[in-house]
Design a protein that fits this description.
Elements lengths: L4 E6 L2 H9 L8 E4 L7 E4 L1 H4 L9 H7 L4 E3 L3 H18 L3 E5 L2 E5 L9 H16 L3 E6 L2 H11 L4 E3 L5 H5 L12 H9 L5 H5 L1
Parallel strand pairs: 2-4, 7-8
Antiparallel strand pairs: 1-6, 1-7, 2-3, 5-6
Length: about 200
């Protein structure tokens, strides 16, 4: 029996929570983090990311790249509460799950196809999360955690993708090696220096 693993990732989670409480932030470039000279970006909205801003970047540089961004200090208690809401929904419905971080979940749905249809069930769960939490969430469904996580990245923002058994390699082949989980900036540069650009090169 092939594994069936779903990966769920709340989109720009900290920003999405802030937008629940302040509608003026919707569709605006938003940066969350410290405002001092040594502050770093904890999260950036998709609108801010278009300027090259990303998490863990020095806030000073982020504001230079995107001067019109709205800076929010952040409320980790609020993020924790909203994470708990989503976790409780998943715990109530999923047969087996792992909470990988405050905004990221893996679900083992292996064997459920014979009863519900795994993709249909996962779609209904995602719809329930969006409806009850009011937060956008993306989903990837495949035969392993790694492929499911990569699929989720391709489904963002607020989308979903299923990669069937046998289609994993063709799906990943044209993607950048940056898409591989746990490939950081240093490893990425080393691989690029060695001539690796797309996942297909590693596959070969």
């Amino acid at each position: 029996m092939n594994k069936s693993i779903a990966h769920l990732d709340l989109d720009s989670f900290f920003v999405s929570v802030e937008r629940l409480h302040n509608k003026k932030l919707i569709d605006k470039p938003v940066l969350i983090g410290g405002s001092g000279n040594r502050g770093v970006v904890s999260a950036a909205s998709y609108e801010a990311r278009k300027y090259g801003v990303h998490s863990a970047m020095p806030m000073r540089l982020a504001r230079e790249l995107c001067p019109e961004a709205i800076l929010v200090k952040g409320d980790h208690d609020s993020y924790s509460r909203h994470s708990t809401i989503v976790t409780d929904i998943i715990r109530d419905k999923a047969p087996l799950f792992e909470k990988a971080s405050i905004d990221e979940f893996y679900l083992d749905l292996t064997g459920m196809d014979r009863f519900f249809g795994t993709y249909k069930w996962a779609t209904e769960l995602r719809d329930t999360i969006v409806r009850e939490s009011k937060l956008p969430i993306s989903m990837g469904l495949s035969t392993s955690k790694s492929v499911a996580k990569i699929a989720t990245g391709e489904a963002k923002p607020n989308g979903q993708i299923k990669i069937d058994f046998g289609n994993e390699k063709p799906f990943m082949a044209p993607l950048s090696i940056r898409k591989i989980p746990m490939i950081g900036e240093k490893t990425y540069k080393n691989l690029r220096y060695m001539g690796f650009k797309q996942i297909v090169t590693i596959q070969e």
